[in-house]
Amino acid sequence: MAERAAGLGSRALNLPRLTLFPLLALTALCGCKRESAVEHANREGIMLVGNSAEPRALDLQLVTGVPENKIISALFEGLIANHPSDDEALEPGVATRWEHNEDMTEWIFHLRPDAKWSDGVPLTAEDFIFSYHRMLSPGLAAAYAPMLHSIRNAEAYNRDQRGYILCGLDEDFPVAWKTLQHANFSGDPSIDAGDFANRDFNQLSADEKKRLLASRGLDRLNAVQLQAILDEPALFDWPDDIPGDARSLVVQRLLDHIDADLFEFANIGLRAPDRHTLVVTLREPVPYLPSMVRHSTWYPVPRHVILKFGKMTDRFTEWSMNGNLVGNGPFMLKEWRYNHYIEVRRNPHYWDAANVGLNGIRFYPIENPYTEARSFLAGQLHSTYNLPAELLSKVRASHPQYLRTEPYVGTVFLRFNTTRKGLDDPRVRRALSLAIHRAELCQYIYEGFTPATTMTPKLGDYRAPDALDHDLAKARQLLAEAGFPDGKGLPSYAILTSRPHPAVDALQQTFRKLGIRVTIEQKDWGSYIAAQQSLNFDMAMAGWIGDYLDPTTFLDMWTRDNGNNNTGWYSVKYEALLRQAAQQADPSSRNAILAQAEGILMDELPIAPIAWFSRLYLHRPEVRGWHPLVLDNHPWKTITLQP
Amino acid sequence: MLRDISNRLLQGLLVLFVLGTLTFFLVHALPYGPFQDEKAVPPHVMERLEKLHGYDKPLLTQYGLRLKNIVQGNLGVSIKVMEGRQVGEILGQAFPVSLTLGLIAMSIAIAIGIPAGIFAAIRKNTTVDYAIMAVALLGICLPAFVIGPLLAEFLGGRLGWFPVSGWNPRDPSSLFLPALTLGLVSAAYLSRLTRAGMLEILNQDFIRTARAKGQKGSIIIMRHALRGGLIPSIAYLGPAFAATISGSVVVESIFQVPGIGRLFIKAIETGDETLIMGPVLLYGSLIVIANFLVDLLQIWLNPRLRTAKAS
Amino acid sequence: MGKPSINPDAEAGHSLWSDAWTRLRRNRAAMCGLAFLGFIILLCFIVPFFPALPDPAAQSLPNKNSGPSLSHWMGTDHLGRDLFSRILHGGRISILVGLITTTVSLTIGVAVGAMAGYLGGKVDAFLMRTVDVLYSLPFLIIVILFSALAKGYTNDFTDWLVDLTGLNRDAIAPFTSLIPLFVAIGALSWLNISRIVRASVQDLAGREFVEAAKSLGLSQQRILLRHIIPNAIGPIVVYATLTIPSVMLFEATLSFLGMGVQPPYSSWGILIKDGADRMLSNPLLLIFPSIFFILTLLSLNFLGDGLRDALDPKSAKD
C-alpha cells in the first residue's frame, strides 16, 4: 500500500505540469481553424436552422407552437401550399385545383393522383377525411380543433354535444331542437356536486344523485346514470314543454350510443366522391378558406400509420416518433435527438421531389437568444430564430450582411382587466393608451417594430382607420373627466408580465407621468397565463401572432366567450358586426364590416395595442429562395444553398 | 461494515421517498397546471386532458398511484413539455449528456484545483500562494453566467478555438467550454480545501520528524502528506459532484447542452409533474450514491475512521 | 481551513474576543475586507437618500447606453437609467437578501443544532437523521421548485398582510416580493450550521460551568440560551460570514434563471445578468455591477477567513 502511494506520489509531484499538458494539447488541437459547421453543411446541402425550442411532439394535430410548426411544415403538406415570396399567393399542394359554389359554403378540392406518403402509400381524399375526423374527435382533445369549426356541424361533434347530434339533427325526432335545446344537456356549473363523482353512484342519496346529474348535464352522463334516469324519471328536471316519451327517447338514444363515435351521425360537411376529390361544406361562407387550409391544422395525417400504433383518438402513441413518422412533405424525419437537434432529409416519394433544393435541414432548439446569436456569428447556423433587440445596433455595425428585419403579422399589446376599478372606464383606458409613446418605444426598445395604430396589423387589402396616438395633455384631460384628476382616486395597478422586458419598465414610467401608481408583477409563464384567464390581474403585457392572413385572426378573440379574450370586455354590437361579416361572401364589403368592428374595439380599448411585430433575425446570404414573408411560413422546398 | 452499508442504503431510500413526496405536493400546489396553453384551451378539451392524466382524481389517490408506479419503475409520460413521451426515455437521452458534462467538469476541477492547492501549500505565504488563492476566490465569486458568456465570447467567438454552443460527442472540443465553465467553481473550492488540508498535515509532528531526519521535501509530501492532506478535498467531492450535476442548469442554457437541467427548468415553468419528478429522483439518487462512494473512499484513506466505524 | 473550530475557550470568554480582535487586526486582507464592507454598506444604504443622486427608475430612452459622464458617473443602461444609482439600489436588495436569508438559516440551524446537541438521545437522533436526509436533496433543484411555488402566492400573501395590518401595499411590497427567496434559500441552507452548532453544544454541555448552572436549578432553556449558545458563537459567526456571499451568489443564479428577485426591484444578480445579456452592445453594464459584486463577495470571504483564523488560534498558525 505504501509503495503504491509513493508511486502515485512521484508522479503527483509533477501534477501541475502533467495536467497542464493535456489541457494545452486539447487547446492546440482545437486551436487550428477548422472548417465551420456552416461550411461543412454547405457541402452536404444541409441547412442549419435555429428553432428556439424543443418541439413538444410532432403530432401536428396536438401541437400548437411555432417551433413545432416549422418542422411540421417540412414534413407535411396541406391541400394548398405557401408561395416562397408572396404571402397571399396560393400554390398547389396536394390539391392541384379547387373551386367553390356561389355563396362560398361548398369547396371542392381536386387532389393530385400522384400524391404519396413518404412510405410510398398513395394519399387520397379519405386520408383527409380521416385527418379532420381525428382532429375534431372529442377524444383526441386537440387544442387547435376550433380551427376546423367552420366545417358544417364540426363544432357540435368536437364539443361532444351528443344530445344535439343524436336528437337535434334527426329531422324525424318528435320534438324539434328549438324546444329540445332548453333541456339540461351541457350541465349547470352553478350546482355544486361536491365529490359525488368520485363515489359509487348507486350509494348516493336521491338528492345527491339529482344534484350530480344536474351539474353534469345529459351529454356528460355515463351509462349507469342514464339508466337511473330511465328507471326513475324524477331524478332529472326537464322543461315542461318536452313530453315524457320524448324525454325517455332522448335518454334512451344517449344510452344506446353511450361509447359510440358520433362522427357518422353528425353529418359533418366532409365528403369524398372519389379517391381524388374532397368536398368540404361549411356552416357559413368563408372566402379565405384556401388561405386557411394552409395552416398545419388542415394538413393530412397518415391513417395507416396512426392506426398501426393505436386507436385514432389515442394521444400518446409512437406514430409520430422518429422511425415511425410518415409525412407527405418535401422532407422526412431522419434523426431526433432531444434538446439537441432534429434532422430531416429529402423525401423521395414527394410529388415534386425533383424540385426540392436542399438535401436536408437540421433544426436546433436554441432557447437562449444570445447563445443563438453567438452560434450564428461563429458559423454554426444558417439562420436564427430571432435576434435580441439589444444586439441589433451591434450587428448592424459589424455584420450588416447577415441582418434581416421583416414585418410579421403580430401585435404587442397591453391587456386591461376591464372589471377593475378605474379600468372599467373607457376614458381611463383611453388615457393610458394616449400616454404610451409608441414611436419612442419602437425606436429605442422594440427596435425594428412598427408603432401600432390598430390591433390588426396591415393585412392584404384590410385597412382599419388609424386609431391610436400619443397625447399626454389629452390623456390628463380624459383622466380628469373620468373623475381621477392626476390619477387621484385610482388604485395602484400592477403590470403583469412573464419575463423582464425593458418595455414594461418603460410603460411603468409612462403611466407614472399621469400620476398613476404602477408596479410590475412578473410571474412564471404558467402563472402568467392562469392569472389572465381567471381575470386575476390589472394589466398584462401580451402578444398575438396571426394564424392566417385575415383580420378575424386578430378580431375573433374579443368576443364574450372566447378563451383568449381575458379582458372581461365584450360588446353586443361588436359581435353582431363580426357575425355579419362572417355571412358576407364579398371580400371588400366583408373587410369594411370588419374595419367597423375594429373601430369599436379601438374606441373602447379593452386592450392598448403598442407595436406591430417585426421579425429580427440573422440569416446567411448563401441561403437562396428565402424571401420576406409576413406569416413567416417559408416553404422549405424552394430553398437552396449556394455558397 | 455490512450493517453500515445496509443502513446507508435504507437511508438512501428514505431520502428518495421524502424527495419524491415533497416534489409531488410542491408541484401540485403550484398556482398553474400543465394543461394551460399560450392560447386558451377549450374547456371540454381541458376536462378531457385532466381525465387522461388522472388529474380528476383526488390528490391523495393520485399520489398513491404515482408512488406505486414509480416503485415499479414506471416514471410515467411527460404531460406537457414533451407530451406523451416516456420520462424514462427522455432521461435516457439527456442523462448521459449531463453525466459526461459533470464528469469532465469534475476532472477539470480536480486537475486544476488539487495541484494548485498543493502548490500553494508548499509555497505558503509567498506571492505564488497569494496569487493562486486570489484566483480561487475570484472563481468562487464569479457566477457561471458571467464566466460562461465571457469564455464563449473570447475563446469561442473571437479566437474561434471552440464551438460556442451545441454538444457533439464526436467532437470533444465542443464539450470543453461548458465543462470548463462548470468545473472552475469546484476547482476554486478544491484548491482552497487542498491547501488547508495539506497545511494541517504539514504541521503535524510526524512530518516534522521526517523533515528533521533530513528526508527530501518532495518525498515527504508524496509519501506522507498527500494522503492525509487530501481528506477534506475528498469529503468535498461528493457534494461538489452533486452541485456540479444539478448546477449545470445554467451552463446548459448558455452553451445549448442537451442535458437534464434545461428540461427540468422547462418542466417547472409548465408544471409538468412527471418530467419534474424524473430528474428530481435521478439527482437525488446520484447524490445518495456519490455521498456513499465518498464515505467509502474516506474510510479507505483514513484508517482511524475505519476502526471507529467498525466499533 | 477545512474543519471549523469547535473549541472556543469557555472560561476565558471575554479575553477570547479581545484576543481575536487583536489577531484579526493583524490580518491585512480581513481588515481590508471589513473596511470595504463598511464602505459599501454606507454607500448602498445611505447615499441613495441623497437627492443629488439620480432616480434609479428615471428613464431617458434617447440617452440610453451612454458612457460615464459627470451627470452619470457610470453611464446609463439600456433604458437610459443611471447605472451608478441602480447599482446602489440593487446592492441594497442583494445585501438584504444575503443578511436576512443568513439570519433565517442561522436561526433554524442554531435552534436545531442546539436542541440536538443539548437534549441528545432520541431527539438528537431524529434531528440529525432529518439533516442527513435533507443533505442528500439536490439543493438548487429544490430551491427552484420552492421559489416557483412561493412566487405564485406572493401577491396573495401581500394582500393578506395588507388586510391584516392595514399597512400601505406599496410600502411592504418590496419586502414581501423577496419572501420567496428568503424562505427558499433560508429554509434549506441551515444544515451545515446545525451540524456545527450541535458539535459545539455537545462539547460545551459537558463542561463544568454548565454543570454548575444545572446544579443551581436553572431551566434548560435558560442554560441553553444564556450559557451554551453564547459560548458557541465563534464558529457561528465565522460560518455566517461565509454564508452571506454564497447566498448572494445563489440569488444571482436564481435571478439568471428568472426565479430570483422580481422586477421592478433589481439586485446585483439581475444587473449582472442584464449586463451579460448586453455584453456585446454595452460591456459597461456587465463590468460595473460585477466589480461591486465581486469586491463585496471577496471582502466577505476575506473577513470570514480572517475571523476563523482569529477565533481559532490553532488553525491560524499558518
What's the quick description here?
Chain B is mainly α and 311 residues long.
Could you walk me through the main structural features you see in this protein, from its secondary elements to its overall organization?
The complex is a heterotrimer of chains A (643), B (311) and C (318). Chain A is an alpha+beta fold. In chain A, 33% of the residues lie in helices and 16% in strands. A six-stranded mixed sheet of chain A has the order 12-16-11-15-13-14, with helices on both faces. Chain A has a four-stranded mixed sheet with strand order 1-10-9-8. Chain A has a four-stranded antiparallel sheet with strand order 4-5-7-6, with helices on one face. In chain A, helix 10 (223-231) runs antiparallel to helix 11 (244-256) and helix 16 (426-435) packs antiparallel against helix 18 (472-481). The model of chain A is unreliable at 1-32 (pLDDT under 50). Chain B has a domain at 97-310: MetI-like fold (Orthogonal Bundle). In chain B, helix 1 packs antiparallel against helix 12, helix 6 (144-158) packs across helix 10 and helix 7 (173-202) packs antiparallel against helix 10. The radius of gyration of chain B is 24 Å and the shape is globular. Chain C contains 13 helices and no strands. The chains are: A alpha+beta (643), B mainly alpha (311), C mainly alpha (318). The interface between A and B is large, with 71 and 74 residues.
Largest interface comes to: A-B, 71 and 74 residues
Biggest sheet layout of chain A? 6 strands, mixed
* The CATH architecture of chain C: Orthogonal Bundle
Structural domain tally of chain C: 1
Shape of chain A: globular
**Low-pLDDT residue intervals, each spanning 5 or more residues of chain C:** 1-13
- End-to-end Cα distance of chain A, whole Å, is 63 Å
Task: Please tell me how large the radius of gyration of chain C is.
Answer: 22 Å
- Write the element-wise H/E pattern of chain C from the N-terminal end onward: HHHHHHHHHHHHH
Residues in β-strands, percent of chain C? under 5%
Largest sheet entry of chain C: none
Helix content of chain C: over 70%
Strand order of the largest sheet of chain A: 12-16-11-15-13-14
Structure annotation, total helices of chain C: 13
- CATH superfamily label of chain C: MetI-like
- Class computed from helices, strands and strand pairing of chain A: alpha+beta
